[in-house]
Write a structure and sequence with these properties.
The complex is a heterotrimer of chains A (430), B (460) and C (257).
Chain A (H helix, E strand, L loop, with lengths): L25 H44 L3 E10 L9 H6 L1 H7 L2 H13 L10 H12 L7 E7 L2 H8 L4 H12 L3 E5 L18 H32 L4 H15 L2 H13 L9 H26 L2 H9 L4 H29 L3 H5 L20 H9 L5 H31 L4
Chain B lengths: L2 H30 L8 H37 L10 H16 L8 H38 L7 H41 L2 H6 L5 H8 L8 H33 L2 H16 L2 H23 L9 H26 L2 H9 L4 H30 L2 H6 L17 H9 L8 H34 L2
Helix pairs in contact in B: 1-2, 1-4, 2-4, 2-5, 3-4, 5-16, 8-11, 8-13, 9-11, 10-11, 11-13, 12-13, 13-16, 15-16
Chain C lengths: L9 E10 L2 E11 L4 E5 L6 H7 L10 E9 L2 E2 L7 H7 E4 L10 H12 L5 H14 L3 H4 L12 H13 L5 E5 L7 H14 L4 E5 L3 H7 L2 E6 L2 E7 H6 L4 H7 L5
Parallel strand pairs in C: 3-8, 3-9, 6-7, 7-8
Antiparallel strand pairs in C: 1-2, 1-4, 4-5, 9-10
Classes of the chains: A mainly alpha (430), B mainly alpha (460), C alpha/beta (257).
InterPro entries (chain B): MetI-like, MetI-like_sf, Phosphate_PstC, PstC_N
Protein name (chain B): Phosphate transport system permease protein
Function (chain B): Part of the binding-protein-dependent transport system for phosphate; probably responsible for the translocation of the substrate across the membrane.
């Protein structure tokens, strides 16, 4: 034991005279109560902040739902047509052999108009949507014998009637709805054609399929380019890159690209892909390439983190049995890092799917009435379609815009859920 | 034969090479014994496959760029081409139309003369495609045969294949540099062209923005003063949005890290993350459809003058909400980086939790929070869709949040959408604005990362 | 030993501590008085630090922790409904294993406690408290010219004395020290030990240490903890020279630990 042995109790230092704090006094009690009050208020403030943020999200979603779900319904009118007395000119014989072509040339709009006027008065034709012709054509194809008798077919109502029936429209349309209701001709049906149609000028017959297909093609290109490039870059930087100025330059570039505003990538696409390389404007090819440059850094950063998380012991073990550097990485490190890389890729792709600004720069705001056939056809994508519809004057486009937003959000939520699922399922603690 | 077909055929040849070489190497291995071979059969397979495909594909890439010139030359040499107009512009128009008809991209001709060239275009195109395909196939076979002849027990196929893999990886990572260089080059070049038409000082310090008047021929002077744009960007992104996002984000982070029970935190955090995952076009639509009209009717009820249906406040508020999760997660990280010992030290003195947070944790985490806010600002000023849809186009220099202002990104979209002639000052101005935006966000990010890094080091 | 002369400042009876399902402390009873420095010794993981933290309810900050039994301060149950944890911690100060000055100036570090508890009537009064506390922690002469420098810029030993000054500044009755020298070099350790000896008599001091020489040097009473139980306690001289329990003897003679 040390020589500075145990001091004796008797050597206690002289007590310093002090007045002990009066913790029980009134003033101190009040003070402490005040401090607890401040504590509660602060805590409530925090809760309020979280509630406000969450509440805003809820408000946004509810607004979109309330507007958008109506976009999936369509007000319909039961239209009685007396075919024998209608002005339809058609050859019943050729109808049997080649109905599509015969009906494409027939004066169906006139038939609709005639029947509507007969049923609902002189402005009856105005109640019918342009989609009524499609409904009529389908009815005739389904049952050609219909032409010999009187029949009632259900056709979509026009934008004005649709709006007036769902919420409130112009006085004229409200009156029309009242009249149609009285005649018992009004009903509401599901409008699944919203998912199969493309852009148009009449909000009752537009759909998201064209934009959705454009999005899918664009995302395909983006994935095809950004995934290999991103994974290869991550592998190189994490596993092989020597510490030198080039490597630093690569790292700085990637970190900066991740922070560059997306619209700048649009400028890059416009200047390089369109004006220098002369690739087709408005095409998914260029859109996909632009978004790939934007997504690549996200994948690289996620990939590097996933690769870093693979413990060095696994590399050592593989090297120890004589695996070459390439074999170590491709046989051992990459498979273990893959779930993390995939999670990052899905998150990056979800971001690209919701991106609008860079695609506006390269002209992917074309009015596309039919879905693009390939990656070089003019196309638009879902977010841009939302933007375009939001600019439309017609009131009927409001619910279509919201409905398209619902479709987009469903895609994004699904992708994010898959990413979270992957992350949780493969989250490994080494 | 289309290009895609040729590529597929070459890839198929590569696959055949892979199989054949692998089979041969396996046989060799059986003959001489496993230990006498340098590389595994699969590696020989890859070696042959690479030699079969890479030279042929590289040739095709070159051919695709050379072929249009050759086709053009051939067509020009035909007798029908002699009657073409002499001036370049109309001659090229006819040629382009003929080519479009020949490739099937266009159905009919506006200029009947182009019809006479269609056949020669078709013939030349198919002839040169066939030549290209045959040459590519020869290259594929030659490469494959050369590599196949080298399949011997002692041949170091593995290290050669691995060298290709390494070069591929290096090449992939160079794309980041190329992209950055591409961004800088395109922004700089186009901006220089812009500044040759407009004085940079007028652009950076001018107070009047009306590119439309320049386009209408009133001259470029006094049309490209970008100060109102800069102000609008700062007003919306750095002031209004941050007034919303900083308190809400910071307090959310504090509540979730310091007060909420783990179970609560578990479902509250993903909700904030969802907020971050909503596309900006949705926020923009929400701002324009719901928030802006509400704010305008509020302003006119209260009697604020100059209220517009597109207001700085609507865009800023919604952008602030969009930034909340970003600020919150940065604050979360910064507070989590403050050592637990600080918190314990303060609590052990008899401080309440809120006193500990306000007087110890936040001051300690401040550099990290500030860095996070700078990153948030850089993101906010680069954000496009919300301001395009909700902020408006009027270049006002105003302090009234209910008035309409415009931003750098809004004007970039405005200048570059629709029909554009690429050389006008109007379209080039978008690149100058892009350059300013790029430089500012880059600086913000560099400063922010420095601050955050320094702060992290302080606690390590 | 004059054990019965002084009224115990704090006393624990039958204390059990649980972390979730796991029991960390089992049936510990001990008194702490004003005139003696009490040392808790024992191998790491024996529960001595855990027990120390129950004395100013720092275990409250761990959600899964649960304390049973009775601990009193001046006869008042510190886990009772009338006891305010803010007050309790002001009266029972704590110094941690690793020096943890706040990232503020030296002055602000010491002034922190008096400020939050409202102990100073004005700027002059606060200056006085800061100076008195720093003097008592033996740090005044070293820092009086740079009170506005950051507390984290001091050396390790100075930081720990700053933390002691910080604890003293709220005028506590008990000071708990959780291995206060384990992160310090020998010279800094000697200074802290001197300081502990000087502070004795003004504050009831409890020190947790795994360094037996230190326990012998600074304490008058020692308690030996092993596997969550208190094996034996008594005057330090007795524990070190003539332990009653075999396990204590094994530990002190270095058989394990």
């Amino acid at each position: 034991m040390s020589s500075r042995a145990i001091p004796e109790v008797e050597t206690v230092a002289p007590r310093v005279a002090r007045t002990p704090t009066d913790w029980k006094g009134d003033a101190m009690r009040r003070r402490i109560a005040g401090r607890y009050g401040a504590e509660r208020r602060f805590r409530l403030l925090g809760l309020a902040a979280v509630a406000l943020s969450g509440g805003f999200l809820l408000f946004l979603l509810i607004t979109m739902m309330a507007n958008g779900l109506r976009g999936f319904t369509q007000t319909q009118i039961a239209l009685p047509i007396d075919f024998p007395s209608s002005p339809l000119v058609i050859d019943p014989a050729s109808l049997k052999t080649n109905p599509e072509q015969v009906l494409a040339g027939a004066n169906l709009p006139q038939v609709i108009d005639h029947a509507a006027v007969a049923a609902f008065g002189k402005d009856g034709g105005r109640f019918m949507s342009a989609g009524a012709v499609t409904a009529l054509r389908q009815a005739i194809i389904d049952d050609p014998d219909i032409l010999t008798r009187k029949a009632t077919i259900t056709v979509p109502a026009s934008e004005g009637v649709d709006l007036a029936a769902k919420s409130n429209g112009s006085p004229a349309d409200e009156a029309a709805v009242a009249r149609l209701k009285q005649a018992g001709a009004l009903s509401t049906g599901a409008n699944l054609s919203f998912l199969t149609l493309s852009d148009g000028t009449d909000p009752t017959v537009v759909g998201v399929w064209g934009a959705l297909k454009g999005s899918l093609l664009t995302m395909g290109i983006t994935l095809l380019l950004s995934f290999p490039i991103g994974v290869f870059s991550a592998l190189y930087l994490e596993e092989y890159a020597p510490r030198n100025r080039w490597t630093d330059l690569i790292e700085v570039s990637i970190n900066n690209l991740a922070a560059v505003p997306s619209i700048i990538f649009g400028l890059l696409g416009l200047a390089i892909f369109l004006n220098v390389a002369h690739l087709p404007r408005s095409a998914p090819l260029v859109g996909g390439m632009t978004l790939a440059l934007m997504t690549m850094p996200v994948i690289v950063i996620a990939g590097r983190n996933a690769i870093k998380a693979v413990p060095p012991s696994i590399r050592d073990a593989a090297r120890g049995i004589g695996a070459s550097p390439v074999q170590v990485v491709f046989h051992h490190v990459l498979p273990l890092a893959l779930p993390g890389i995939l999670t990052g890729t899905i998150i990056g792709m979800a971001r690209a799917l919701g991106e609008t600004a860079p695609l506006l720069m390269i002209g992917m705001r074309a009015f596309v009435a039919s879905p693009p056939g390939g990656i070089t056809d003019p196309a638009t994508v879902l977010p841009v379609q939302i933007f375009l519809w939001s600019d439309e004057v017609g009131k009927g486009f409001i619910e279509k815009t919201s409905a398209a937003i619902i479709v987009l959000l469903i895609f994004l939520l699904t992708m994010n859920s898959i990413a979270i699922y992957l992350r949780n399922k493969f989250e490994k603690k080494w | 034969m289309t290009g895609l077909m040729i590529v597929l055929i070459i890839l198929a040849l590569g696959a055949i090479g892979w199989i054949v070489a692998r089979a041969r190497a396996t046989r060799l291995q059986i003959e001489v014994g496993r230990l006498a071979t340098n590389s595994r059969p699969t590696q020989h397979g890859w070696y042959v496959a690479l030699w079969t495909t890479l030279p042929a594909l590289a040739f095709l890439a070159v051919w695709a760029n050379v072929m249009p010139g050759l086709v053009h030359g051939t067509v020009m040499a035909t007798p029908a081409a002699r009657s073409l107009p002499a001036d370049d512009f109309s001659r090229n128009a006819v040629l382009a139309e003929a080519q479009a008809i020949a490739s099937g991209a266009q159905a009919g001709a506006f200029n009947p003369q182009s019809l006479t060239l269609v056949d020669s275009f078709r013939a030349a195109t198919s002839r040169y495609s066939a030549i290209g395909a045959i040459l590519a196939a020869i290259l594929a076979f030659a490469g494959g045969a050369y590599a196949f002849s080298r399949v011997r027990p002692a041949f170091t196929a593995r290290s050669r294949v691995e060298r290709v893999v390494m070069w591929t990886l290096l090449g992939a990572s160079l794309i980041a540099i190329i992209t950055t260089a591409g961004i800088v080059a395109s922004l700089l070049l186009e901006s220089l062209r812009f500044f040759s038409m407009v004085n940079p000082l007028d652009f950076l310090f001018g107070l009047k923005w009306s590119p439309q008047s320049a386009a209408l021929g009133y001259g470029n002077e006094n049309a490209f003063g970008a100060v109102p744009l800069f102000w609008g960007t700062v007003f919306i992104g750095a002031i209004i949005a941050m007034i919303v996002a900083i308190p809400l984000g910071l307090m959310s982070a504090i509540y979730l890290t310091q007060y909420a029970r783990p179970e609560t935190r578990k479902w509250m955090k993903p909700i904030l993350e969802v907020l971050a995952g909503v596309p900006t076009v949705v926020y923009g639509y929400f701002a324009a459809l719901t928030v802006a009209p509400a704010l305008r009717s509020f302003a006119s009820t209260v009697g604020i003058p100059g209220a517009s249906s597109e207001s700085a406040l609507a865009a800023g508020l919604v952008m602030g909400v969009m930034i909340i999760p970003f600020v919150s997660s940065m604050a979360d990280d910064s507070i989590a980086a403050v050592p637990q010992a600080m918190r314990d030290g303060s609590l052990a003195m008899g401080a309440t939790t809120s006193e500990t947070i306000r007087k110890v944790l936040i001051p300690a985490a401040l550099p990290g929070v500030v860095g996070g806010v700078l990153l948030a600002v850089s993101r906010a000023i680069g954000e496009t869709m919300i301001v395009v849809m909700a902020a408006g186009l009027a270049a006002n220099l105003t302090l009234n949040p209910f008035a309409s202002v415009t931003t750098v990104t809004t004007q970039m979209v405005q200048l570059l959408t629709g029909d554009q002639e690429f050389d006008s000052a109007k379209t080039l101005a978008a690149f100058a604005l892009g350059l300013v935006l790029f430089v500012v966000t880059l600086l913000l990010n560099i400063v922010a990362l420095r601050v955050v890094k320094k702060y992290r080091e302080a606690y390590e | 030993m004059a054990e019965s002369d002084t009224i115990p400042k704090m006393s624990a009876r039958g204390v059990n501590v649980f972390y979730g399902e796991k029991q960390a402390i089992q049936d510990v009873s001990i008194d702490v008085d004003l005139d003696n420095v009490t040392a808790f010794i024992g191998p790491s993981g024996c529960g001595k630090s855990t027990f120390l933290r129950t004395l100013n309810r720092m275990n409250d900050t761990v959600a899964s922790a649960r304390v049973e039994g009775k601990i009193t301060l001046d006869g008042e149950d510190i886990y009772g409904a009338n006891m305010d944890v803010v007050q309790l911690r002001a009266r029972v100060g704590m110094v941690f294993q690793k020096p943890n000055p706040f990232p503020k100036t030296i002055y602000e570090n010491v002034a922190y406690g008096p400020r939050i508890h409202g102990l100073a009537s004005g700027k002059a009064d606060l200056d006085q408290i800061v100076e008195k506390s720093l003097r008592r922690a033996g740090l005044w002469d070293e820092v009086k010219d740079r009170l506005n420098d950051s507390g984290t810029a001091l050396s390790g030993g100075q930081q720990q004395r700053l933390c002691i000054a910080r604890a003293i500044a709220v005028d506590p009755e008990v000071i708990l020290m959780d291995e206060p020298c384990s992160a310090l070099d020998p010279i800094a350790t000697a200074k802290i030990e001197e300081l502990i000896l000087e502070l004795r008599g003004n504050y009831a001091i409890v020190i947790v240490t795994h360094n037996m020489q230190q326990a012998a040097r600074v304490s008058q009473r020692t308690a030996f903890f092993h596997l969550g139980r208190m094996v034996e306690q008594g005057p330090t001289t007795e524990i070190f020279t003539n332990p009653r329990e075999e396990r204590t003897k094994d530990y002190i003679t270095g058989r394990y630990g």
